[in-house]
Amino acid sequence: MALQNNSEECGRAPLILTSCLFCPAFSSQSLGCKPIASLDHFTPEMMASAELVEEVPLGTSKVVKVTGIANPGRTVSILVRGSNKLVLEEAERSLHDALCVVRCLVKKR
Q1: 87 C-beta neighbours (distance < 10 Å), count
Q2: How do the domains of the chain map onto residue ranges?
Q3: Which 8-state DSSP code applies to residue 32?
Q4: Under 8 Å CB-to-CB from 33, ≥6 apart: which residues?
Q5: What is the rounded CA–CA span in Å between residue 78 and residue 58?
Q6: Mind listing the pLDDT tens digit for each residue in 26-57?
Q7: Strand ranges (DSSP E) for the chain?
Q8: Does residue 76 contact residue 31 with C-beta atoms inside 8 Å?
Q9: Order of strands across the sheet with 15-17?
Q10: 44-95, pLDDT tens digit by residue?
């Protein structure tokens, strides 16, 4: 899991995909498209559009930033940077706990 708060844009936050987040299910849900298994199914209704796709440096690595998605899904990417693996693992556990609390509160309504 890759995590970092990105408050670069006001309003709608940009979608950031990293290599560990870039799986067909997550990216297709985020972009509002459907996974394409073969070229026979490569049709306009299966695809998504965006205003800008760019590779942005982030520390010592790079991420792909997609903005201006025509039909955005209801997903969020959280990127967290830490000084070492232990800090990142603790941040992941804390975020998981926080999301579980939110899920429980939403289910009770």
Answers
A1: 12
A2: 15-81
A3: T
A4: 46, 47, 48
A5: 13
A6: 777 777 788 788 888 888 888 888 888 898 89
A7: 15-17, 50-58, 61-69
A8: no
A9: 15-17, 61-69, 50-58
A10: 888 888 888 898 898 788 888 888 888 777 777 777 888 888 998 899 899 8
